[in-house]
Design goal:
Beta-Lactamase, HATPase_C_sf, alpha+beta, nucleotide-binding, 3 domains, five-stranded mixed sheet, Heat Shock Protein 90, PAS-like_dom_sf
């Protein structure tokens, strides 16, 4: 049968493209004889170009390309019943490192319907896969190291808290004892945060679980009678980045400590409620008690370290602090509104 007049031209063009290609390519007949191989293929797999003509794929090199599965897939591709796309193989050669390869193959329509030809492209992904495994190993090692660091941090925080409590028992000054107790509560809140971070995935902290655990820790160390005073958490399902959760947790710690110290004098009963709600980038954190309410004039407590901590943290979060009468009790709300900040920026620019 005479070939279509363009068949010779198409075959010659394909041959020229394969030979000059910068990628490892093989031009094969339907019976898997090598019609041509790119110079890059020969260099990559250390095959003498002069030994290639007339050989089958399985005969290249020292026979390392004799892979029954690959041969079967190429035969199916030539018949049109299969298609090789990103098929992975291991190329094993004597005294050399096994190479991981990805092969793609397709038939070429060069006008000669009696002779199917195949174009086989080979990509060496050995180094890429090795880098990926190394990265996975590093991530795994980092996770193990982080777990060990978290364990040591937890132990250290417990030791510090214990030392603070022992010191509080020994000092004579009521003021010094109060400061040591406050320091103890703050250390315990950091310990609760550390524990929550250690169990969080993806670097985000679920605030409802964190606030609950934090308040349980504060209650255990500051509330002698749980039937008289309690702390509740009504936060939504928000999750924030770890650094934001640190600031929010410290704010809650300071506000809860302040309410426990001042809102329920004597044997007064009551509840402190921590609430957090968010919508998009807007959020509101509130700590509300049903205690004696805000004091005025000379009866108002002086601003201390806790107040300074809350103000600094709220500013860092670009939040606004609002103190209001909860009737009964006191509500302290810290809110962040993207729209408000935008209007402030625009008014400042004006």
């Amino acid at each position: 049968m005479l070939k279509h007049p363009t068949a010779h031209f198409e075959a010659a063009s394909t041959l020229a493209v394969v030979v000059s290609s910068n990628e490892p390519l093989l031009f094969l007949s339907d019976d898997q004889k090598v019609i041509a191989a790119s110079a890059s293929f020969c260099r990559a797999f250390e095959i003498d170009p002069a030994t290639i003509p007339g050989k089958r794929l399985s005969e290249l090199g020292n026979g390392e390309w004799a892979m029954p599965k690959l041969a079967s897939l190429l035969k199916a591709t030539a018949s049109g019943s299969a298609h090789i796309e990103a098929y992975e193989i291991d190329l094993k050669r004597p005294n050399q490192k096994t190479r991981q390869l990805v092969v793609n193959a397709r038939t070429l329509d060069d006008g000669d319907i009696d002779h199917i030809r195949l174009l086989l492209a080979v990509t060496d992904v050995t180094d890429v896969r090795a880098e990926a495994r190394l990265k996975d190993d590093l991530v795994r090692d980092k996770a193990i190291l982080l777990q060990e660091v978290q364990h040591r941090v937890a132990n250290s925080l417990q030791i510090i808290a214990s030392v603070l409590m022992q010191s509080a028992r020994r000092v004579q000054s009521e003021e010094a004892r109060g400061h040591l107790h406050n320091a103890h509560h703050r250390v315990m809140s950091i310990a609760a945060l550390q524990k929550q971070l250690s169990t969080s995935k993806g670097g985000d902290v679920e605030l409802r679980a964190y606030f609950t655990q934090l308040c349980q820790s504060l209650g255990a160390s500051m509330i002698a009678d749980p039937d008289r005073l309690s702390i509740e958490v009504t936060a939504d399902n928000s999750a924030v980045e770890a650094d934001v959760s640190v600031s929010l947790g410290l704010i809650v710690t300071e506000l809860v400590i302040n309410a426990l110290k001042h809102a329920f004098p004597g044997e007064r009963t009551g509840t402190i409620v921590i609430d957090y709600q968010s919508s998009g980038n807007d959020w509101t954190l509130s700590v509300t008690d049903n205690g004696i309410g805000m004091s005025a004039g000379s009866d108002a407590p002086k601003a201390g370290l806790g107040t300074g901590i809350v103000e600094a943290l709220a500013k860092n979060l670009r939040g606004e602090i609002l103190l209001s009468n909860a009737g009964p009790g006191t509500a302290i709300t810290i809110s962040h509104q993207e729209g408000d900040r935008l209007r402030t920026d625009l008014s400042t620019a004006a």
